[in-house]
Amino acid sequence: MQQVVKEVFCIKDTEDFEINDPGKKILSIELSLDGFSYTVLDTEKFRYVALESYLFENINNYKHLSQVLEEITKEKSILTGSYQRLNFVFISQYVTLVPSELFSYTEKNAYIDFNVYPQEDTEIKVDKLNNLSAFAVYPIDRLLLQKINFLFPSCRIRHISTSLIENLLYLVRYGRVSPQLVLHVQKGQFQLLYFHERTLQFYNSYRYQTWDDLFYYLFFVLEQLGLSAEEMDLMLYGEVGIESELYKKAKLYFRTLELGPRSDLYKYGECFDDIPHHYFYNLLNLNACG
Fold first, then answer.
1. What is the CA radius of gyration of the chain?
2. How far is CA 96 from the centre of its chain?
3. Which of 11, 40, 47, 237 could bridge across to 267 with cysteines, CB 3.0–4.6 Å?
């Protein structure tokens, strides 16, 4: 596992955390070809008490990803407890958003075929987005899905677009934040959301290898939408620091650049004090996603 997995964060409230009663806690997991993260919420105190995150290298297919996921789960006993609830978010750029009034479950394959070209051995899943009044339709590798359900039999699987849109739309709609653009960045992939008059106008996800790749896609989208970076307020979420080239360039290009706040719906153990508040936004808000 050491050849492809690098641990980047490992924080817990107490040294003996893993022997505490998991039945009073909620486990939330994020998984992609680029990494794996999880966090634990103590439901009695409504406080996050643990978080670990790993970056992957040279994992290019879901068969390999399934094997690595099983290895991590075997090594981490904290992942195998009987939790009160288990949230699981699958990160990929492939998703089709369909308005509720146009959606039919019998047509889910057609929605994917129209917008995405899934591989043959995939299963089509559907999430309901209540705040957006839409459905997210997305393919997931069948072998990976079987492995997830085997390792975490009671988990509730969601696509990253579902949790990210639902939580950010809530914040924007009720005036908790007021960005025009939201950039959510993780290793190898980023999501871009554009809001106008407290409604979501655009969402898409892109793969990238360099910051130049990311800015190319970002400015291409702005051009297609008829928007100018110099007139836009940008909010940044994700695992990217203020010392990064991304942050420094974005600060030059956009009218304003703000780091997204951490949700005040929850409390956070002291072990979270050293993690910037805009990190792990999606992971730490899976519990708020219906």
1. 19
2. 16
3. 47
Left (φ > 0), alpha (ψ -120 to 50) or beta: where does 198 sit? Answer: left
Residue 2 pLDDT class (50, 70, 90 cuts): very low
**Cβ proximity of 11 and 57 under 8 Å:** no
Tell me which residue of 24, 41, 29 sits closest to 87, measured CA to CA.
Answer: 29
Which pTM was predicted? 0.93
pLDDT at 244: 95
Instruction: Collect all residues with Cβ–Cβ distance below 8 Å to 243 and sequence separation of at least 6.
Output: none
User: Please, what is the average pLDDT of the chain?
Assistant: 91
Query: Cβ-count burial of 131 within 10 angstroms (0-12 exposed, 13-18 middle, 19+ buried)?
Result: middle
Run of H or E residues at 110: helix 108-115
* Measured CA distances, 152 to 27, 28, 81, 202, 246 (Å): 10, 11, 10, 33, 36
275 phi, psi to nearest 5 deg = -100, 125
- Concatenating the DSSP letter of every residue in 206-236 gives EE-SSHHHHHHHHHHHHHHHT--GGG-EEEE
pLDDT digits (tens, 9 = 90+) for 213-250: 999 999 999 999 999 999 999 999 999 999 999 999 99
> Which residue blocks in 116-227 are alpha helix, DSSP H?
142-151, 160-173, 211-225
What are the structural domains of the chain? 1-174+263-278 (3.30.420.250), 178-259 (3.30.420.40)
**Distance, CA of 110 to CA of 57 (rounded, Å):** 34
Residue range 267-275: mean pLDDT, rounded = 92
